[in-house]
C-alpha cells in the first residue's frame, strides 16, 4: 500500500482496540487507516463512512466484503484479523501490505519491459484464479489496485467485490473504474469473472504503454470506444499480447478464464473443458462454438484464441515462458491452494507440479485485501437521503416528431437559446452546430475544439454561446455570427458542463479534474476554483436567483455552493453511483439529479433534503431538464428512453421513444411544447409533449 498521510483533524484516533496512526484514503464504502493492534502489529483498518453507517444495506455490503475476503486462500489475500459491525462505527482489520500502486510505479519509473510485464501478468492472473475459485468477482481490477512491493505484485481492494452467489450482485449498483471497465459493466452493471479478465487485460496494456487501451477521457467517449473500437496495444509482446487481445473481446463469453490465461503463460496450453456455473448470464450472445465462461472458473476451459491479424499477433498461445524458470518450492499454504485448484481431474495431474511451482513463485507476492482506496473524504456538511421511491411511468409511448442524423459521431449536449429561436448541439467530432428551432435545420457549424464537445450553454441575453470539451478548454462564441470570442484554459481534464449565472456575469465550468471553475464571462478571467469533489465533476447549474451553484460528480454526491464566495454549502448524499446531471426548477425550490444508479432524485433546496426518488429507467439515468413552467421533468437514460415526470407528485407521465443508443442530453423548448434529445446513435430527436 502507499505510505500513509498524517491523520486529519476530523479523523478518529481510536477504533475499537486499535490505535490509528495514519490516513490511507477513502472510497465508496469506507475510509482506510494504518493502525496498531494492542500487541503492536501494524494493520490496515477500514471504517464504514459515517454517511452510510446507519443504512442496513451498507452494513450488509460491509459484511459481504468481510465474508468474501475470507474465502480467498491466504497466500493471495491479506488475512482478515478482526471485524466489528455491531457498534456505531463498523470496521474490518486486515494485514497491512507494503508497496506502491502499479499506476504510481508506471508514472514514476516508466512502462514495464517484456520480462517484467510477463512476471506481472503471471502474478496478477494467479491472484484472479484464486479469487474466482472462491466464487468472488473483483469488479474493480485496475492499476491502482495492484500493489508492487519488495516481494512482488499484489492484487488488493475487495471493497467492490461481490460473491457470485450473493443477492447483492443482482442489485442495480454499477461498480468499477471507467477506463478499465468491460462493455457489460457499462450496460446495466452485470459483472462476472469475465469482466475481471477484461479489466486485467486493460491493466496489462496500461503497464506496457502507460495509457489505458481505450483512452481515459469522458464516459460517453470511453463507452463508444470500449464497445466499438479496437484497443491500443502499444508495447505488448508475446505471449502476453495475444492473451490481452483475447481478454479484451467485446463478448464476455468469448474471453479466456483466469485459469486459461495462467496455463498459457506457463506455456502449456489449456486443460480440459470447464464446467459452467449455474445462474450466470451474459449480456451478449456467445459466438458460435464459444464456451460460456463468464462465472467463476474451474482450472479448466476451452480457449480459442483470436485468429491472426495485424493487431492481434500470432494466434498460437503456447510456447516457453520465461516466468516459469528458476522456481523454488512453494510453502505448504501454496501447495494446499494448488491441490484445491487442480482438484481430482485426471487430465490435470500431469500439470500439478508445474502449477504448484508457479503458485509458489507468486505466493508471497499476490495478495488481495479490502484495505486500500484512493479518494479523499470531504469535510463539509452532508445530507443523507431517506427516499420515497416512485414507480416509473406506465403511460403510452410517444414517438418523435423529428429525427435528424447529425454525423458519424454522436452529439453529447443540447441547449436552447433564451428566445427559443435556436438551439445548439455539441458533437463527438469536436464541432458545435447551431440549429433553427422552427425548421430543425443546421444554420452554422463552429469549429475550434480539438476533441468531443460535452457542454453547451447560452448566455441569458443570447449573445454568447459557451462550450466545453474533452480538450479541457471552454470556448466562447459571439452570436448570431458564430465567431470565436476567446478560449478559457486552466482545467487539466475534459470539461463536461458549463453554465451562465442568471445575470450573465459569471460562467461556471465543471471538469474531470474534479474542480469547478468560475470565470468572468466578459473578460474570461478566472475568479474562483471550487474544490471538494473527489472524482470527475460532470454537471453544474446556477439557481434561478443566482445565489447557489449545484454540482454533480462521479463521487456519488450532489454539492451546493455559495455562488458569491465559492464556499461549500452542503453535500447531498443518496445516489449510489455516479451523478451525471443536475438541474434547478424554474422557481429554484427543487433540484433534480440523474445518476448511474438508474434513479432521478428530487431535492428540497431550502431544507437540503431529498424529497423523492424517481425510479423507472432500466439503465443509467444520464440527463435531466425542467419544463419552463416547472411542472414537468424530462430525464434521459442509457435505456434509450426519455421519460417525463410530474414534479409535484413524482408520477411518470410519458415515455419518449426512438433513440437506438444512450440518451446524452435533453432540453425543453422555451414554450415547453417539445423536448429535444441527442443520443449515442448520432441522432437528434424532437418530441411533442402536449
UniProtKB/TrEMBL annotation:
GO molecular function terms attached to this record: ATP binding; protein kinase activity
Residue spans of the WD repeats: 413-445, 446-487, 488-529, 530-571, 572-613, 614-655, 656-690
Residue segments, region Disordered: 296-337
A Pfam family hit: WD40
Heme listed as a keyword: no
Record keywords: Membrane, Repeat, Transmembrane, Transmembrane helix, WD repeat
CDD domains: STKc_PknB_like, WD40
Transmembrane as UniProt keyword: yes
Transmembrane segments: 354-375
Low complexity: bias regions: 309-326
SMART domains linked to this entry: WD40 (SM00320)
Domain Protein kinase stretches: 18-271
Protein known as: Protein kinase domain-containing protein
Amino acid at each position: 500500500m502507499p505510505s500513509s498521510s498524517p491523520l486529519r483533524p476530523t479523523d478518529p484516533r481510536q477504533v475499537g482496540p486499535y490505535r490509528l496512526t495514519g490516513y490511507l484514503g477513502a472510497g465508496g464504502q469506507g475510509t482506510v487507516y494504518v493502525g496498531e493492534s494492542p500487541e503492536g502489529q501494524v494493520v490496515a483498518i477500514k471504517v464504514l463512512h459515517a454517511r452510510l453507517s446507519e443504512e442496513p444495506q451498507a452494513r450488509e455490503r460491509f459484511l459481504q466484503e468481510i465474508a468474501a475476503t475470507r474465502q480467498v486462500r491466504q497466500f493471495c489475500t491479506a488475512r482478515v484479523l478482526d471485524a466489528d459491525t455491531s457498534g456505531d462505527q463498523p470496521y474490518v482489520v486486515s494485514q497491512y501490505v507494503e508497496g506502491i500502486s502499479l499506476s504510481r510505479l508506471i508514472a514514476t519509473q516508466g512502462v514495464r519491459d517484456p520480462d517484467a510485464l510477463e512476471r506481472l501478468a503471471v502474478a496478477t492472473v494467479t491472484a484472479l484464479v484464486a479469487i474466482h475459485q472462491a466464487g468472488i468477482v473483483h469488479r474493480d481490477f485496475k492499476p491502482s489496485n495492484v500493489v508492487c512491493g519488495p516481494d512482488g505484485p499484489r492484487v488488493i481492494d475487495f471493497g467492490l467485490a461481490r460473491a457470485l452467489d450473493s443477492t447483492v450482485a443482482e442489485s442495480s449498483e454499477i461498480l468499477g473504474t471507467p477506463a478499465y471497465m468491460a462493455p457489460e459493466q457499462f450496460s446495466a452493471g452485470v459483472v462476472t469473472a469475465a469482466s475481471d479478465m477484461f479489466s486485467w487485460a486493460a491493466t496489462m496494456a496500461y503497464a506496457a504503454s502507460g495509457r489505458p487501451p481505450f483512452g481515459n477521457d469522458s464516459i460517453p467517449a470511453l463507452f463508444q470506444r470500449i464497445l466499438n473500437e479496437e484497443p491500443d496495444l502499444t508495447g505488448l509482446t508475446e505471449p502476453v499480447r495475444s492473451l490481452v487481445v483475447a481478454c479484451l473481446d467485446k463478448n464476455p463469453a468469448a474471453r479466456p478464464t483466469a485459469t486459461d490465461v495462467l496455463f498459457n503463460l506457463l506455456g502449456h496450453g489449456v486443460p480440459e473443458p470447464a464446467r459452467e456455473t449455474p445462474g450466470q448470464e451474459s449480456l451478449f450472445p456467445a459466438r458460435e462454438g464459444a464456451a460460456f465462461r463468464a462465472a467463476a472458473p474451474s482450472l479448466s476451459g476451452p480457449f480459442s484464441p483470436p485468429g491472426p491479424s495485424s493487431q492481434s499477433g500470432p494466434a498460437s498461445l503456447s510456447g516457453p515462458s520465461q516466468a516459469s524458470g528458476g522456481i523454488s518450492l512453494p510453502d505448504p499454504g501454496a501447495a494446499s491452494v494448488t491441490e484445491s485448484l487442480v482438484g481430482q481431474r485426471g487430465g490435470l495431474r500431469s500439470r500439478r507440479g508445474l502449477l504448484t511451482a508457479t503458485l509458489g513463485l507468486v505466493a508471497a507476492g499476490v495478495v488481495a485485501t479490502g484495505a486500500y482506496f484512493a479518494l479523499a473524504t470531504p469535510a463539509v456538511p452532508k445530507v443523507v437521503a431517506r427516499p420515497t421511491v416512485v414507480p416509473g411511468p406506465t403511460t403510452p409511448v410517444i414517438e418523435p416528431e423529428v429525427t435528424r442524423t447529425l454525423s458519424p459521431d454522436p452529439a453529447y449536449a443540447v441547449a436552447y437559446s433564451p428566445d427559443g429561436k435556436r438551439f445548439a448541439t455539441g458533437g463527438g467530432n469536436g464541432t458545435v452546430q447551431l440549429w433553427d428551432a422552427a425548421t430543425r435545420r443546421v444554420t452554422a457549424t463552429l469549429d475550434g475544439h480539438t476533441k468531443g464537445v460535452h457542454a453547451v450553454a447560452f448566455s441569458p441575453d443570447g449573445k454568447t454561446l459557451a462550450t466545453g470539451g474533452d480538450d479541457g478548454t471552454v470556448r466562447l462564441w459571439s452570436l448570431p455570427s458564430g465567431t470565436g470570442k476567446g478560449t478559457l484554459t486552466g482545467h487539466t481534464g475534459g470539461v463536461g458542463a458549463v453554465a451562465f449565472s442568471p445575470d450573465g456575469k459569471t460562467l461556471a465550468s465543471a471538469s474531470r479534474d474534479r474542480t469547478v471553475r468560475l470565470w468572468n464571462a466578459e473578460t474570461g478571467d478566472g475568479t474562483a476554483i471550487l474544490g471538494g469533489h473527489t472524482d470527475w465533476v460532470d454537471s453544474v447549474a446556477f439557481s434561478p436567483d443566482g445565489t447557489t451553484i449545484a454540482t454533480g460528480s462521479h463521487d456519488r454526491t450532489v454539492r451546493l455552493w455559495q455562488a458569491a464566495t465559492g464556499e461549500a454549502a452542503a453535500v447531498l448524499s443518496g445516489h449510489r453511483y455516479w451523478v451525471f446531471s443536475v438541474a434547478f426548477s424554474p422557481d429554484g425550490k427543487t433540484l433534480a439529479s440523474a445518476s448511474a444508479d438508474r434513479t432521478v432524485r428530487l431535492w428540497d433546496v431550502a431544507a437540503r433534503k431529498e424529497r423523492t426518488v424517481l425510479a423507472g429507467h432500466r439503465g443509467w439515468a444520464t440527463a435531466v431538464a425542467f419544463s419552463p413552467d416547472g411542472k414537468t421533468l424530462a430525464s434521459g437514460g442509457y435505456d434509450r428512453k426519455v421519460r417525463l415526470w410530474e414534479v409535484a407528485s413524482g408520477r411518470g407521465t410519458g415515455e419518449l421513444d426512438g433513440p437506438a443508443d444512450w440518451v446524452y442530453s435533453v432540453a425543453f423548448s422555451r414554450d415547453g411544447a417539445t423536448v429535444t434529445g441527442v443520443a449515442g446513435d448520432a441522432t437528434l430527436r424532437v418530441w411533442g409533449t402536449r
